Amino acid sequence: MTNGNPPDLEDAEPDLRAIPDDPYEREDPRSGRKSTGSRVILLLGLALLAAGVGWYLWSTFFAPKPAPVVAEAPPPPPPPPKAAEPAIQHPIDTAAITEPLPALAESDKPLAEGLAAAIDRDAIARYLISQDLVRRIVATVDNLPRKTYAQRLSPLKPAPGKFAVAGADAQMAISPQNAARYAPLVRAFEAVNSEKLVALYVRFYPLFQEAYREQGYPNAYFNDRLVQVLDLLIATREAPGQLAIAQPKVLYEFADPALEALPSGQKILLRMGPENAARVKAKLREIRALVAKEGGAAKPAGKAP
Description:
It contains eleven helices and four strands, in the order ααααββααααββααα. The chain has a domain at 104-302. It starts with 35 loop residues before the first helix and ends in a 14-residue tail after the last helix. The strands form two sheets. It has a two-stranded antiparallel sheet with strand order 1-2. Helix content is 42%, strand content 3%.
């Protein structure tokens, strides 16, 4: 102070203590400049670091897991078209049957009684196996077109006598005397009343159809098979003279491979001899005319009675 006068306002120094420090603006002691920008960058860096750490922790431990991608299964292929059931070629009319039928397992006695009207009782006792008769007939009819058939399932007893052979070794043949073994059976077969026999067959047809289903043919029709087998037997070739045979093991066989390859039913007729075979085929034609309905009203075989 000079001369007691108050100092000039322009010359007075500001009191820096009265101005609060800005925490974000400080002088750099080296340059004397303020470091506001560096602090902002530092704070931004810390914020970004914190955000990155937070995102890592959240995505690792808390973020929901994406649902697994499940490959869609291809659609199932369409079902194959259902095969049409075979049509019945020779239907049996069972509509007129009014009498109740016995069960298949109990049909032997009533069927044997019915056969007595068509076949001589003595012939039935001599040649027929009446036990399980329906099943035996069905099994034998079904097997006659095959190369072999089971004698144990036949409804007929074996022909009496022994198979007669002429010659030996490479000269073996069926003896003409062998036909005599079959002659009584052929005569009994010729004496059968075909109309009464077929009428009995029609009456008991549902049991024959049931037995045929048991053989493994749920959609087939037994009468169609019967007509097919009758046609096969009727078509057996004529073989006059002595037929050469061989005995490679226990059983005799036809020496001619073409004859040996024939169905078993045709080979039976050949062993009977030409005359017996001709008489049997004539009777078979008669029976076929009665059981075959050519051009009959067809219906699915699975609907058979």
